Amino acid sequence: DNAIRYDRSRGGVDPVRTDLSATLFLSAPEDYDGGELIIEDTFGTQSVKLPAGHMVLYPGTSLHRVTPVTRGARVASFFWLQSMVRDDGHRRLMFELDVSIRRLTADVPEHPALVQLTGVYHNLLRQWAEA
C-alpha cells in the first residue's frame, strides 16, 4: 500500500497520508472459507474475520494480507485514513492514555486525578494535532 494517496477525481491534488487502514467486512463469515485478514504489528499477529457490517481499524504501517478464499466470496471494502496526529508513536500513546482513562472512569468515575489525566490527553492532542 502507498504511504500517500491522491484523489484522482480531483486531478491528483490534496495528498492524504495513509496513517490508518480500515477494512469493512460486507460478507457474512459463514458465506466463505478462508479470507482472513492477517495483521502483523507491535501487538503481534492477529487473524481477523468479522461479521458483515463490522470494521477493523489498524495502523497503516503494519504488514497485512488476506488468506486465500477457498469457498464462496469475500466481499469487503478497504480504505485509508489520515489522522490529525501524524506520528504513529504519538497516536499509540494517545490510544493507551484514552484506554486507561476509560478503565479508571469505569472504576472510580469521580476521582480528581481523572480530570487531570483527561486534561493531559487534550493538551497532548493540542500539541500533536495538525489541523
Q: What value does the Rg take, in angstroms?
A: 18 Å
How much of the sequence lies in strands comes to 35-45%
Overall helicity: 25-40%
Number of helices: 2
Q: Strands of the biggest beta sheet: in what spatial order?
A: 7-3-10
- What's the multimeric state? single chain
- The rough form would be described as globular
Global structural class: alpha+beta
Mean pLDDT: 91
The beta-strand count equals 10
Gap between N and C termini: 25 Å
Q: What can be said about the biggest beta sheet?
A: 3 strands, antiparallel
Secondary-structure element order, as H and E? EEEEEEEEEEHH
Q: Low-confidence stretches at least 5 residues in length (pLDDT < 50)?
A: none
Give the key terms:
131 residues; three-stranded antiparallel sheet; 10 strands; alpha+beta; 36% strand; globular
Describe this entry's structure for a reader.
- It contains two helices and ten strands; from the N terminus they run E-E-E-E-E-E-E-E-E-E-H-H.
- The chain is of the alpha+beta class.
- Strands 7-3-10 form a three-stranded antiparallel β-sheet, with no helix packed on it. Strands 6-5-8 form a three-stranded antiparallel β-sheet, with no helix packed on it.
- The chain starts with a strand and ends with a helix.
Write the layout of secondary structure elements.
Blueprint: E1 4-7, E2 13-17, E3 20-25, E4 32-34, E5 37-41, E6 44-48, E7 55-59, E8 63-66, E9 69-72, E10 76-81, H1 88-107, H2 112-128
Helix pairs in contact: 1-2
